[in-house]
Amino acid sequence: MQPAKNAAASVKETAANIGASAKSGMEKTKATLQEKGERLTAHDPTQKEMATEKKEARINQAEYEKQVAREQNATQRQVTEAGGGTHSYSTTGATGNPMGSHQMSALPGHGTGQPTGHVVEGVVKSHPTGTDTGTGTTLAGHNTKTGGGAGGYGTGGAYR
C-alpha cells in the first residue's frame, strides 16, 4: 500500500507543479501584454521605462510564487510518503484523523446508536423511549398507548 501511496503523492505533486507553472505562465503573459499596452499609450520615454519595470516585477513575482508552490508541493509529498495525515478538518489547516462516516453530536449518546443512560444535569431528567430508567421498568412500559411491558427495553409498539 505504501508504494501506491507514494506514487499517488508523486502524481499529485506533479499535477500541482504543472498547475503552478501554468499560473505563472499566464501571469507572465498578462504582464507582457499590459506592458505592451502601456508602452503604446505612453508618450514619454520615462513612462515606457516604468511600464517595462512593472512588467519585470510582475514576472519576477510570478516566478517567485511558482517556486514557493513547488516547495510546498514537495513538502506535502514528503509528509504523505512519511505516513503523515493530509486531511484537514480545521479552518487553520491543521491535519488530523477523519471523524468517521458521519458527524457526531456533542450531546452525550447522540449519534452513537446507544442510549445515554442516566445523565444528571440540574433537576429535570429525560430519557428516550425505551431507555432503562433504573426503576425496573422502561418509560415505554408506563405509556398506555404503546402496549409496552415491564422490564427490559421497549420499542414504542403500535398505537392503540
From TrEMBL:
Residues 129-138 have a biased composition (Low complexity). Coiled coil: none annotated. Residues 146-160 have a biased composition (Gly residues). It comes from the Eukaryota. Residues 1-160 are annotated as: Disordered. Residues 70-79, 87-104 have a biased composition (Polar residues). Residues 25-69 have a biased composition (Basic and acidic residues). GO terms for biological process: embryo development ending in seed dormancy. Belongs to the LEA type 1 family. This is 18 kDa seed maturation protein. The lineage of its organism: Eukaryota, Viridiplantae, Streptophyta, Embryophyta, Tracheophyta.
